[in-house]
Automatic annotation (TrEMBL):
Pfam families: F-box-like (PF12937). Signal peptide: none annotated. Gene3D superfamilies: 1.20.1280.50. SMART domains: FBOX. CDD domains: F-box_SF. This is F-box domain-containing protein. Residues 1-46 form the F-box domain.
Amino acid sequence: MSLLDLPDELLVQIASYLALYELVLLQQVCARWREVIRSNAALQYNIELRVAGMIDNPASRLVPGERLRILQRKEKAWRVLDMSDKRSLTLSHRPSGIYDLTGGTLLLGERRNGEGYAGTDAVHTIQLNAVSSNSGSQANDSSWTNIDLGKQVIDVGLAIQEHDLLAIVTYS
């Protein structure tokens, strides 16, 4: 029995331990290896992820085939600078200079006082994936979450993806 007589599932398992350049070389060995690698979404995702210079999100619950489709769509959009997938966010507050974006959460500060005042009185957050999944192209005010601590905000920090953490530094 030769290695190539093994079922595709075992060949995929073996190939999954290889580095990117080894996978590329393995595809050149013979038509069987090329077909095994090209027909497996997880292996293709790993190859295209490395080629794009990106890293995988281990917290993602998407199957490799869906991850591959999303990656391919994003890479194509970058190649042709396709900006057709736009969403508008309606702001019912006056934004301050505080903002952050991480883990799909956008945070914008709110300035309630008049002109000449550069402080932040509260912060608002929105999940951008909720905006992109809406059928319309615009998020309404109910999509935003308001966080008002009743104090002046100095700065904020987000670590949503890693720790589901939002830190707000205030002063009185």
